[in-house]
């Protein structure tokens, strides 16, 4: 899959923008703050329904406008799909596919991309929510229906937490809350599927993660990911959580869905008194983490800056590899946002070689000389929210 044309209206600093794209590599070059990242961010948003820079949508709408519109013409072999998203400052967002109304959560079925940016250092060094988001975005791109499962889980969780807070305020005991059992059943049904899907994904990432890390670093540092599950007693507030999976990475931390559901329900019963005290749900996929290991040690706290950067990049490349393996639409669009400025010459060259086989690669850079020559087939200059020049590398 590749993007043939990208159109933006009132998105970030763009009043209007039209960008024609081709297979192969394209470099978007310009000084910082001109709008390079905004262009690639919009493609990533269509694929994941989220920005890698902000948690809400308000910042995506240009100042003074009521809505931003992102349109992408996608090429899937001989087939063309026009994906459109209207991001509203107020109210729900709206989507279209080939000019027919659609739900925004339908877009990841057609738009696949993997974006790596400096913010991704937080995958290794940041909070559990960052790692949960990495897994969930990949899950939704591979199985878009899971967006609905995750949305339903969030709604049930919110309702359950509201009930717990109300009970705490009124001084009620657990046995005075018969409706809590109903919310528990729904939470367990939805949450168990999310847990099982995440654990299975972590297992699938093992091999491509190791291959991607070696391709960048040329060293076997044994990168690994292990699930850390709150239903098994892990506390995300712990500074150094224990992994829930065996060291060989061949088996997940859970068995069949039924076994997961049983453990989840047991955890909720065990936590009920504490939950009433705090007014919060203390077990479930919203409290889980993924432990990143390098040479058997937690990368968070032990890995150097360079190792952390390489680990995060390897996770993104492994994600791209999984998408290209099982997607009927072919390769995802691979986006590298301001990546090469952080790498030395050798790692730049190794990264360029590792991604050479992807159908479409989009690179942003403040300095063109930072980008390896094999990725400069086409160069687009960006200035103050305008596409001012497009050229072939040999022009």
From TrEMBL:
Keyword S-adenosyl-L-methionine part of the UniProt annotation: no
Subcellular locations according to the entry: Cytoplasm
Domain AAA+ ATPase: 22-386
Keywords assigned: ATP-binding, Cytoplasm, DNA damage, DNA repair, DNA replication, DNA-binding, Nucleotide-binding, SOS response
Residues binding ATP, per UniProt: 30-37
Region (Disordered): 227-258
Superkingdom field: Bacteria
MF terms (GO), sorted A to Z: ATP binding; single-stranded DNA binding
Gene Ontology, cellular component aspect: cytoplasm
Residues spanning the signal sequence: none
Keyword DNA repair: yes
Annotated InterPro entries: AAA+_ATPase, DNA-binding_RecF, DNA-binding_RecF_CS, P-loop_NTPase, RecF/RecN/SMC_N, RecF_2
GO biological process, one term: DNA replication
UniProt family annotation: Belongs to the RecF family.
Reported function: The RecF protein is involved in DNA metabolism; it is required for DNA replication and normal SOS inducibility. RecF binds preferentially to single-stranded, linear DNA. It also seems to bind ATP.
Protein name as it appears in the record: DNA replication and repair protein RecF
